[in-house]
Design brief:
Blueprint: H1 11-24, H2 37-44, H3 48-60, E1 64-67, E2 71-74, E3 79-82, H4 89-95, E4 100-111, H5 117-120, E5 127-137, E6 140-150, H6 166-173, E7 178-189, H7 192-198, E8 205-215, E9 220-229, E10 233-236
Parallel strand pairs: 3-10
Antiparallel strand pairs: 1-2, 4-5, 5-6, 6-9, 7-8, 8-9
Helix pairs in contact: 1-3, 2-3
The structure holds 2-acetamido-2-deoxy-6-O-phosphono-alpha-D-glucopyranose (16G).
Length: 241
């Protein structure tokens, strides 16, 4: 890396461009630990502040990520998640040749919460399963999902089924046909609790996705709140005119 101190281009910008190039051409491979602020500052005879600005910008742009007490590393490419096609987490991972797994944090049968009456077309006399799972790709946490499923559709659901795919269980063991869904996507930042579960820092960007899934007979089958890691996911869809 070469820094030209006489150049009108600010030094932090030169560092950024240099590092970006090395990341893009593969000189710096994913998960490589990059030199510390101090090492860069000494190497180029510039202030740590300048190096810090360059590295912070690259963290914000997703090129680098920080791990507390360990240093700054090169990010991996984000997963491209198509928005067409109603797929399950397990199917998505399988398609990428990755192992999907889950950690079940909560599994409760509760009275349907009032704010879900209209989405799930239920009343307070109806029970729902509330399941909260961390979803992993090759053992790396990707998302936290909190699902609400009417008891009438999943009365036989047990904790054991949820070590695998929920959709697979529903489709293979209940005879119900999952048919279509609507989703809302929002930008957000990770709360302290979410950050802990996803191994990211508090305030890191996340994608909040709310999905209502319907059966073939158009009855709502699940309402899911998902929090996906913003540093690992991008959503792709095509448009026609
Ligand atoms: C996806 C869905 C989620 C569904 C889950 C089932 C999004 C945003 N969410 O993660 O709604 O419950 O798949 O996955 O795509 P499973 O069959 O692997 O348990």
């Amino acid at each position: 890396m070469f820094i030209d101190k006489q150049s009108p281009i600010p030094m932090y910008h030169q560092i950024m461009e240099n590092l970006k190039k090395q990341i893009e051409d593969g000189t710096l491979a994913p998960d490589t630990l990059i030199p510390s602020e101090r090492e860069y500052a000494e190497r180029f005879g510039i202030s740590r502040m300048t190096v810090r600005q360059a590295l912070s910008n690259l963290v914000n742009e997703g090129y680098l990520y920080r791990q507390k007490g360990k240093g700054t590393f090169v990010s991996r490419e984000k997963f491209e998640q198509p928005l067409q096609g109603l797929t399950s987490f397990t199917e998505d991972m399988r398609q990428r040749g990755l192992k999907a797994s889950s950690e079940l944090l909560d599994f409760n049968k509760i009275a349907c919460p009032a704010h879900l009456f209209s989405s799930l077309q239920l009343a307070d006399s109806d029970a729902v399963f509330e399941l909260k799972r961390i979803r992993f790709a090759n053992d790396e946490p990707m998302a936290i999902e909190t699902s609400y499923i009417p008891e009438k559709f999943a009365g036989t659901l047990t904790k054991e089924h949820l070590t695998g795919s929920l959709y697979e269980y529903i489709e293979n063991h209940t005879g119900l046909a999952i048919a279509h869904a609507t989703q809302e996507l929002e930008a957000n930042v990770a709360t302290k609790g979410e950050a802990h579960l996803l191994s990211i820092t508090t305030g890191a960007p996340v994608l909040s996705i709310t999905r209502t899934t319907y059966l073939q007979n158009d009855l709502p089958f699940e309402y899911v709140l998902s929090v996906y890691r913003g540093d690992r996911y991008k959503l792709i869809h095509t448009m026609e005119r």
